[in-house]
Give the backbone structure.
Amino acid sequence: MELTESEIQRYSRHIILQDVGGKGQLKLKRAKVLLIGAGGLGSPAGLYLAAAGIGTIGLVDGDVVDLSNLQRQIMHSTATLGKPKVESGKKTLSAINPEITINAYHQLVDAENILPLVSQYDIVLDGSDNFTTRFLVNDACFFAKKTLISASMFRFEGQLTTIKPHAGYPCYRCLYPEPPPAGLVPNCQEAGVLGVLAGTMGILQASEAIKEILGTGETIADKLLIYDALDMKFRKVGRPKDPACPLCGSNPKIKDLSMDYTVSCTI
Amino acid sequence: MIKVRIPTPLRPLTKNQGEVDVTAGSIADLVNTLEASYPGIKARLCDDSGELRRFVNIYVNEEDIRFLKGKDTALKSGDEVSIVPAIAGG
């Protein structure tokens, strides 16, 4: 695989960077990144990953574009209202960069379909909107040994970390052992979210994904980044590996995806 | 004095303050002190048996208390405590 003349021109501002270069750009071209959720986080991440020349981008989402999405889900537009988000997203990303492959999966991820899907990609970005999916994605990426870049948001606050237990780092369950039970944590629909926060967090995910592919810079896999948009504060806290983790600990209880992942996070 | 960082979901209980100052010698002490000033906050942090909930992390400075001494983790003046709940919005 090589870069074409038009690709060399398109990615010239990358290629002149010492940490990218022609070799790095080829790594991006060869890379396959799966976005779980084509919504608030998946939109900005998808736009920049497509522009950056990630050779294959997968979009998985079971929803259709709703008017209330457009305040933050910038891959979609008024013109694609009612269309599957993955089709709307594919159209937008292809328009930005026709040189790359976009795979659209109009489905919800579940314990049956997630492993075959994740296995086809190198890196997974979690931009889902519920705890059921987040725990399922974490467990699937653990079994498939795929690096997971996880971001989430609530009102004016976002969290970000990279999850790669296959490289000795903690998993999502090391950070949060259990999802909240029904009723304790309201979801975005009920709580609201600052639209532009989705941009900040999704782009940070894209940035970490690109660094993982290039193998450059510092990882955030041993930290949790917390961004408070109101206070304009970025803080990092430690994120150690839990030796008693039920998934990646020394005596794991979770050995496959057969557990009941269903939790409701609605009030 | 210990500075406690209150996450967005709990701010309705602290009159929308993102940071509150308390005096406490341990995390358990801090939770009770917060409850006295902001009733209802303890139930958000601890389950019915009084144990810290497993989807809410508490950090002293940058360290997760689950990897220190849990609720018995000692606090000293000048420490910064952060309450960080799992959030799932995407």
Remarks:
- Strands of chain B lie at 2-5, 19-22, 56-60, 63-64, 80-85.
